[in-house]
Design brief:
With about 280 residues, this protein is of the alpha+beta class. It has two domains: about 200 residues, no CATH class; about 55 residues. The chain is about 45% helix and about 15% strand. The chain has a seven-stranded antiparallel beta sheet with strand order 6-5-4-1-3-2-7, sandwiched between helices. β2 and β3 form a beta hairpin. It is globular, with a radius of gyration of 19 Å.
Length: about 280
């Protein structure tokens, strides 16, 4: 496909799309990503970063906004691991991001399709602080994204955000361009030499019924931190956070937040199951 044809295809498919940036290597991200119960394409995205692309489009299949689904996923991934997760999303009307880090409240910002800022400027400062960005140069660049600019649409705003993140080590694989449709993103990711498919735990468990004798043989992602002295405490905290989040998501009929709560519950329960049993003295 020529450059002009590729550009025309992108402009003709303004469908919603999304990606997740995790500040961790792919090997660390993979076990947690499987618990999202969605097939994900996983690839390195720079020094100490990974990118996740959903194989499906749950925001279309369930009729839920893409930002709500991705925000829930980011929160679930971040609470279940010791690294921050940045969700980038866009649809025909808006684009934006949501940054989740530990048990802290997620921070986000969005723009209308024509690039008009529609967020709180202070969110950008919080965003920079949580990622450890330069408090002068990077914050100045982020502030520019919160000011009116008739020449910048929502896709340009996301490119500007990624330009700042490049100084923090982010380097998306070739062909991954925010604003493209989910189909184009997946096609570009599959061409990457280091991309791999991580199947959701509900699917990957299908053939493992006869291999559950030992922890090493059991299917599914077993958290590396489960054996740590603080692993049981973290697991209990995840369960405590997951219960009200799941209930809140069910009341709001929000698939994204319900998934986040369910993931916390699953991850916490999994951590307790993996925790070593210490004999009594």
């Amino acid at each position: 496909m020529s450059t002009e044809q590729s550009r025309s295809a992108r402009e003709a498919q303004p469908a919603p799309g999304a990606l997740l940036l995790c500040r961790a290597e792919p090997d660390s991200v993979a076990p947690v990503a499987r618990l999202l119960r969605e097939d994900m394409l996983l690839a390195p995205a720079g020094d100490g970063w990974s990118v996740l692309l959903p194989e499906g489009r749950p925001w279309q299949e369930a009729g839920e906004p893409v930002d709500r689904v991705l925000s829930g996923w980011a929160l679930a991934l971040a609470v279940g691991a010791p690294w921050p997760v940045l969700a980038l999303w866009w649809d025909t009307e808006r684009a934006g991001y949501s940054l989740a880090s530990g048990f802290r409240r997620p921070v986000g910002y969005e723009w209308l399709a024509n690039g008009t800022p529609a967020g709180v400027e202070e969110a950008m400062h919080t965003f920079a602080g949580r990622l450890g960005l330069d408090p002068v140069l990077d914050v100045q660049s982020l502030d520019e994204l919160t000011r009116p600019d008739p020449a910048s649409d929502a896709r340009a705003r996301l490119r500007g955000l990624l330009a700042v993140l490049q100084r923090a080590g982010v380097d998306l694989p070739g062909g991954l361009a925010p604003g493209d449709s989910a189909e184009l993103l997946r096609a570009a990711a599959r061409e990457g030499p280091h991309t791999r498919l991580e199947q959701g735990v509900s699917r990957s468990e299908g053939g493992g019924a006869g291999r559950r004798g030992t922890r090493e043989d059991r299917p599914g992602p077993w958290p590396a931190w489960a054996a740590a002295p603080w692993g049981r405490v973290l697991s209990l905290a995840q369960i405590a956070a997951g219960l009200p989040l799941t209930a809140w998501g069910l009341r709001r009929r929000s698939g994204g937040w319900t998934t986040a709560g369910a993931l916390l519950l699953a991850h916490g329960t999994l951590g307790l199951a993996c925790a070593p049993v210490r004999p009594l003295d």
